[in-house]
Structure formats: C-alpha cells, structure tokens
Amino acid sequence: MKGFQQARWRTPIIFESGSKGRKGYSFPPLDDSAKSTLREIVNTLPRQLIRERPPDLPELSEVEVVRHFTALSQMNFGIDNGPYPLGSCTMKYNPKTNEALASMDETRWVHPNQPEETMQGTLEIMYKLSSWLAEITGTSKVTLQPAAGAQGELTGALIIRAYHKQNGELTKRNEIIIPDSAHGTNPASATMAGFKVVIVPTDEEGCVDIEALKSATSERTAGLMLTNPNTLGIFEKNITEISKIIHEHGGLLYYDGANLNAVLGKTRPGDMGFDIVHLNLHKTFATPHGGGGPGAGPVGVKEPLVDFLPVPLVEYDGNRYYLNYDVPHSIGKVRAFYGSFGVLVKAFAYILTVGAEGLDKISDMAVLNANYLARKLSKIKGFNLAYAKEKPVKHEFVLSCSRLHSETGVSAKDVAKRLLDYGIHPPTIYFPPVVKEALMFEPTETETIEELDRIIDALTEISKEAYENPEKILTAPHCTSVGRVDEAKASHPRTMCLSWRMYKKKNHVAGGMKPKRR
Ligand SMILES: *Cc1c(COP(=O)(O)O)cnc(C)c1O
C-alpha cells in the first residue's frame, strides 16, 4: 500500500526549451526536380495563404523532445499506471496489439478520397464492424460516423426529429423525456436538436418512477432517452413497460449505450424495445479515451429509421464494398468523411480478438468485479451504498460518504484526492446528482482481485485517517506531481494561460523563442 510517489519534474514548457537552429529530424537535401515541383505547388497556392516567415515553433533535438514528453507522462496518471475506477467512463485496459494494428501503413495511410476499389479492405473493416455492432445492439443498421458519445446522442436526437417531421408531427412532438439520473450529455443533446427536456424522477429503488413517467408522456412526447443499466448501476426492470408507454404515445426510445459493459452478450437494447442506440467504442470496446485521442460513438437504428442515418453508409453487394450516399431521408453528414477510422480499427480488432464468447465473459467479469467492490466498500465506516443495498448491481455502483462527511468533515472530493496518494485514480464524484457525496465506482473487467483489494485497503485506510487525522486528507494529494489545485481558478479563464500566445502576452516575452534556463 505504501510507496506510491509520482515523479515531480521541473520541466520548462516546450517553447522555452531548445535553441534556435536545433533540429530533431533531418530530411535529405532536395534535388533540383523536387525543388521545381515544390515551387510549382507553391505557385498554385493563393498568395494570402503563403507565409512570409516560418512559424514560431520551438526548435529542439530529438533527445530533448523525448525527455520532455517522457517527463510529462511520468507526472500523469493513466490506465497503464494503475486502477482507474471512474464510474460511467469504463476505463478498461486498452490492449496494445490494437494500437499496433491501427498504426500499420495499411490502416494509417488510407486517404478518404481514394477510389473505392483501392480501399476495399478499409471499407470491409467498417462494414463488418457496423454489422457486428448492429448484431450486438439488436438494431438493423449502424453508422460509424459520430466522433463521441455525445455526438451519437445528437445524431440520434436529429433522427428522432427527422422521423417526426416526416410524419408531419414535429410541431406537436417537441418534448424528450429524460430521467434525473441521466448523463448530462442527454439533456444537452436533446436541447441542441431543438427539443424541450422533461425530467422524470428516480424512485426509491433507483429506477425510473413509472407513475411519473406515465404522467410525463403525452402526444407531445417525441421520445425518451434512457441508460440501462442506468448511471446508478441498476437495471431498469420495467424496461418493457417503459417502452410500451412511450411507443403507445407515438414516441421513440433512445438508448444511451455509452457503457455496454454489463449487458454485452446478455441482452440487447433492440430487444428491450429501443429504436435508436449509441455506443462508445472508447468505453466498452477498449479504445483509448480522454487524452488518448478521438473517440467514436456509432449509432444503430431499427428498420424504419435506417433511411434517416447520416451519409455515406458502408454497404456490400456480395462482390465489393462501397459507400452509399443514396439514403432518402438522411439527416446529412455529422462528421467529415466516415468517422474516426483509427478508433474503428481498434474496436474491430478488439471484437475479433475476444469473439462472441469473450464479449459475454467481459460482462460477467465486469459485473462480478463491481459487486465484489460494492459489498466490501459499503462495509467501511462512513460509507454506504446509495441504492442496491440488498440487491446486486451491474457494472458500476454509487457509494455515498455523506456519513463520513458529517462525522469528520471529509467530503467525497477529499476522499478522491487522497486516493491518488495510494496510486489509485479516483472514482467519479458528485454524479449522479441524485446521490449526496457520491462516489461512483466502475472497476471494469480488466482489474485483478489483487487490484480490487488494493482499492478496498486504500479506502479502509482513508476512513481510518478521516476519523483520526482528517487534516491529512483535507490537504491531499501529497504524493502526486501536482498538489491540490484551485478548482475555482480553473473556471476563470482570464487567470489561466491556455496558449503560448497568451503566455507570451502575459509574461511580456518578445518575438519568437527565448530559451530560458531554470
Ligand atoms: C461517457 C458517457 C456519455 C458521453 O460520451 P462522450 O464520448 O464523452 O461524449 C454519454 N452517456 C453516458 C452514460 C456516458 O457514460
């Protein structure tokens, strides 16, 4: 348990490193024909786009660049450092072989404007991935275009809009119903698509309050957005009834499938009655997220909605793969070209590696890990389970430390900060907002029992500390490269320097690079 200590480097920002004229990479000299080709290209460019001076970039040797970024990476925390039980985020381990496959020349150097016959393999990957995702979700057709879960939601909400418009009902149907435990992106996406959001409360068991849902549903209902299992980690046992209520009133059901970890291979949103589903490949399907790069939020729909999907759809005629732009009621494009292709390759490789049986096992292990952790953590003094006190949870659960807070003054935020000192990434805190002093844990299937025990030991220690020496927690973290940050300051952009240009202005740095020694 002891001994975690993050690196602390006093690394200058990259613009303050290096020296003028230093190079990290050398190109072979241009021969005359290359020079003249280059000149020809430059001559075709509009004059106003041609730079007079080279851009103001740092100039460093290769070793300086490598050391700079290695130092920064050592001051960070990621899934490759330790457990990352960030609820509703599914921070599972990202297999490195998938990274290698996505970095191959064949997958990396395809140009989206290449003729179709030269990118049959690329299209095959997209076609097969979307077919598998349709199978996994119980939908008819999947678009891979959206770049994130939230963009998938917007795509889905725009499809709901287009569907009601097509039926001449859009002016009447302008409400989307969303439970109060939903992810914040749900109401945001519905609002962006032009709908009014109607919130329904959670009942004592942590499920949608059915009576409240009935009274919220009317001929104004365009649809319902639901997460199942919901963000409390509880499966909505009344889902077929919920689906019936919405469908009887002419609404559509949207499934927020950002986290499919508990139901993968067990049940399918399509079978539960949902019409539209989005998935986060950067959660359930093991592609990196957060600082790890772009995500992917594919959207699947049932038959009557296929004609509304974004263009192009990737199709196969039994002989060749092709891009189909002929989608009669398409909502149009939601992203350039065909989606985050590199991410799609990683998810494709992941599904291919684990296979259908593997997918099934993933949800077994994810749910087992969550329940093991939930039972053990809820026995620690000051902590208790917000819902599902007696019943099993699914892939995640919400712990409340409101007792700890009232008895010791230590809040969920303080516990989260202190966990970092134990080499464990904090869970999601203060979410969902229906739980006081919430700590939302999602261990995922990729943690071993030893790592789960480490989380349990750390929280046991923290509870002891809170009752004996709360000061230690209130000032945490102590073992990280950066101590407790001023969160209020972060929300005042004027006090922050967010770019080199801002930094130069604030610190009166003249002109270009100014190597500074520290
Ligand atoms: C993560 C998440 C989202 C949003 O996904 P992004 O890719 O971050 O936009 C939506 N809903 C739920 C339940 C999530 O966990």
Task: Supply the key terms.
518 residues; globular; alpha/beta; disordered C terminus; 7-stranded mixed beta sheet; 10% strand; binds pyridoxal-5'-phosphate; Aspartate Aminotransferase, domain 2
Question: Describe it for me?
Answer:
It is a single chain. The chain has 518 residues and is α/β, with parallel strands linked by helices. The protein has a domain at 121-352: Aspartate Aminotransferase, domain 2 (3-Layer(aba) Sandwich), CATH 3.40.640.10. 37% of the residues lie in helices and 10% in strands. The chain is built from 17 helices and 13 strands. The chain has helices at residues 32-44, 62-74, 96-102, 105-108, 120-137, 149-166, 185-192, 210-216, 239-248, 269-272, 341-377, 402-408, 412-421, 449-468, 470-474, 487-490, 500-507, and strands spanning 141-143, 175-179, 196-200, 221-226, 252-257, 276-279, 299-301, 313-316, 321-324, 384-385, 397-400, 428-429, 438-441. It has a seven-stranded mixed sheet with strand order 1-7-6-5-4-2-3, sandwiched between helices. It has a four-stranded antiparallel sheet with strand order 10-11-13-12, with helices on one face. α3 (96-102) runs antiparallel to α11 (341-377) and α5 packs parallel to α11. The chain is globular and about 80 Å long. The two termini are 35 Å apart. The model is unreliable at 512-518 (pLDDT under 50). Pyridoxal-5'-phosphate binds next to α6.
